[in-house]
Amino acid sequence: MNGMKSKHTTNKFSLMSIIFRRLLVLAGLGGGYFLYRKALTHVIYQNQNVFLNAELVEELKQKNVADVGGNRILIGSPHNKTYNSSKKRIVIIGGGLVGAASAYELSKNPEYDVILIEKHEQVGNETSFANGTIISPSLCYPWTSKLLLSKVFKSIFSSSDHSVSLSYNLLFEKYIFTWVLNLLFNLSDDKIESSCRRLIRLALEGNKELETMKQKNKLDDELDMSSMGTIYLYPTEEFYKSDEGLRSVKSKYGVSFKEMGYDELIKNEPFLKNVKDPIKKAAVSYNDSNADSLKMTQFLCEMAKRNGAIIDIGNEFQRFMFDRKSNLLGVVTSQGAIICDKVVIAGGYSSKDMIHKLGIRLPLIPVQGYTFTVPNKDHAKTPLKHTIVDDSGLVFLAPVKDKIRISGIADIGKVNEFDSKRLDTLVKAAKKYIPDIDANEGVSWTQVRPFTPDDVPIIGNLPGHENIYINTGHGSKGLTLCIGSGKILKDIIENRQKNDIEKDYSIKRFYLI
Question: What integer is the mean pLDDT of 30-53?
Answer without folding.
Answer: 76
